[in-house]
């Protein structure tokens, strides 16, 4: 039996959605974020970085959402949710599967850090910290966001079915991309471009996504 070590409000929602699409039986072991939004120390007993998601599947313990998504599709997909074996769909799936955690998530996390640091700065120098981080946001992050969101918008405009690899079903790239895109739509709606908003609606309309949300519990990025 597959066990998903699931942290509330986290990337492991990707794995629940995928398992519901695959209709593979699984169990959820829940972990609650601490007051400072970290994973609880119990997750360190499952995997060395103590982050979510992690799955166990008989003797296999696997962390890193992209690795988990590829493992599950390859082991349990039976042809479902597969990207094309070659051509543009193959390359788009490969690119966006890795881009989600490799390039997009780091700038979203940077944004969270830029917002948190001034709040955690001692009161007397907080105005200075606010000014510095607000300038960093304007000068570094906003131009970066624009490049990324323009690229995603242009790509989504080319895929007729609305999935990143251009097929009739989501593929690994979609399970990876849905999380950062729904975080953008929920947390920074003014930055979300029209096709990104449509994409997130498409994901949220999947019956498997809704079931995963019901089973996963608290999740701040999809209000239904
Ligand atoms: N690149 C990893 C990131 C894992 C990660 O940072 N997970 C977050 C939840 S979204 C986490 O466990 N945060 C709590 C912590 O770091 O204490 C993946 O895609 O699985």
Automatic annotation (TrEMBL):
Residues annotated as transmembrane: none
GO cellular component: cytoplasm
Ranges for domain GST N-terminal: 1-80
UniProt keyword annotation of Aminoacyl-tRNA synthetase present: no
Keyword entries, A-Z: Transferase
CDD domains: GST_C_GTT1_like, GST_N_GTT1_like
EC number in record: 2.5.1.18
A GO molecular function held by the record: glutathione peroxidase activity
Keyword Transferase: yes
Pfam families the record matches: GST_C_3 (PF14497), GST_N (PF02798)
Catalytic reactions on record: RX + glutathione = an S-substituted glutathione + a halide anion + H(+)
Top EC class for this record: transferase
PANTHER family linked to this entry: GLUTATHIONE S-TRANSFERASE 1, GLUTATHIONE S-TRANSFERASE-RELATED
Family classification: Belongs to the GST superfamily.
The protein's name: glutathione transferase
Biological source species: Lyophyllum shimeji
